[in-house]
Amino acid sequence: MTEQLLQRYFANQVTPTEAKQVLDWFATNVGQTYLTHRLDAQLGDADWHAPPNTLTPDADRMLTAIRLQLATSSLTTNPAPVKSFNWFNQSMRWAAVFIGAVLLAAGAYWGYQYLYPADLVQQTAFGETHRLTLPDGSTVTLNGNSRLRYAPQWSSGQTRDVWLTGEGFFRVTHQRNHERFIVHLPNRLTIEVLGTQFNVLARESRAKVVLNNGKIRLNVGEQAQRKLIMQPGDLVYADVKARIYYRKRVDAAAQSAWQTGKLKFDETSLQEVAQMLEDTYGVTVVIADPELRRQTLSGTIPNRDIETILKGLSTLFDLHITQQTNRITIQ
C-alpha cells in the first residue's frame, strides 16, 4: 500500500477499484493498526472541537464499526457514484469530518449504518487475549488472531447467536426462558449450548471443541446431518474439507490453560504445536524432519509471548529453535 494512494483515498479522489483496494488493505492486520493510529491521532488532536449540542464520538465504537464493515461488507466493482453526503444528519456529518475521510469515503459505500452496525465485532491481534461479556452475561475469552461477532442485545425468547473464527473459551449463562445459545463456526459447523463451559478452536475448515462441563450439541452441515452430544472431557475434531471427524477423552482444563498464561501439552504432536503458533501468533514454522513433526510432547510452559513459548519448548523438550523475523525453524 502506497502513501500516495492512501492520501488520495482520504481526499475521496479514488476510483471504485482503488477504493476497494484500500479497503481490502484496511482489513489486514497492518491496515487495522494504521486505522487505530489514525483514529487515535485525530481524536486526540486539540485543534478541533465538537459543534454545539453534539456528542463526542466514541473512538472504540467507530473502530468496531470499521472492523465490522471491513469484515462483512461486499463491495461491487462498479458502484454507483455518490455525488454528495446530504443524507448525513448534522451530528453524523460532523463525526465524518471529525475522523477524516476514513469514514467519509467509506460512507459513500455504506451510508448511515456504517457508524451504527447491527452487530458488534471483537477482533484480537496476533498473540493478544481478550475477555468480554456478552449481552446475556455470558463471557468469552478470545485467544490471539480470533474474531467474534454478536448482536448488541438479545430480547427474551430470542436465540443467542454468535459467530466465531479463531479460538475462544465460553462461559454460558442459563436463561430463565431457556433461550438457546448457538456458536456458528466456519464451514457450517454449529455448537448448540445447553448451559456450559467449553473451548472452541475454529480455523478455516477445521474445528476442535473441548467440553469442560455441562452439555453441548455439535451440528455439522447446513441441515445438521451429523449431530453429536458431547459430555465433559470430550474433545471433538472436525475437518470438513478433509472429512475427518473423531472424538476422544482429554484433560479439558489443559486444553483451555492458555487463558491462565500457560500452555499444557498432553501427548501433543510437534506438528500441532507448530500449527498453534502459526494460527495464534502469525508466524511460519518450519519442521523439516517428518519424524520430528510426529514427536509428541507432554508438559507445561509459560504462555506470555511467543519468545517465552519458544524458550520453554527449547528447554523442556530439548529442541533447537531459531527465529528470523516471522520464520521459525525447529530442529
TrEMBL record:
<keyword id="KW-1133">Transmembrane helix</keyword>
<feature type="domain" description="Protein FecR C-terminal">
    <location>
        <begin position="262"/>
        <end position="330"/>
    </location>
</feature>
<dbReference type="InterPro" id="IPR032508">
    <property type="entry name" value="FecR_C"/>
</dbReference>
<feature type="transmembrane region" description="Helical">
    <location>
        <begin position="94"/>
        <end position="112"/>
    </location>
</feature>
<dbReference type="InterPro" id="IPR012373">
    <property type="entry name" value="Ferrdict_sens_TM"/>
</dbReference>
<feature type="domain" description="FecR protein">
    <location>
        <begin position="123"/>
        <end position="216"/>
    </location>
</feature>
<keyword id="KW-0472">Membrane</keyword>
<dbReference type="Pfam" id="PF16344">
    <property type="entry name" value="FecR_C"/>
</dbReference>
<dbReference type="GO" id="GO:0016989">
    <property type="term" value="F:sigma factor antagonist activity"/>
</dbReference>
<dbReference type="InterPro" id="IPR006860">
    <property type="entry name" value="FecR"/>
</dbReference>
<dbReference type="Pfam" id="PF04773">
    <property type="entry name" value="FecR"/>
</dbReference>
<protein>
    <submittedName>
        <fullName>DUF4974 domain-containing protein</fullName>
    </submittedName>
</protein>
<keyword id="KW-0812">Transmembrane</keyword>
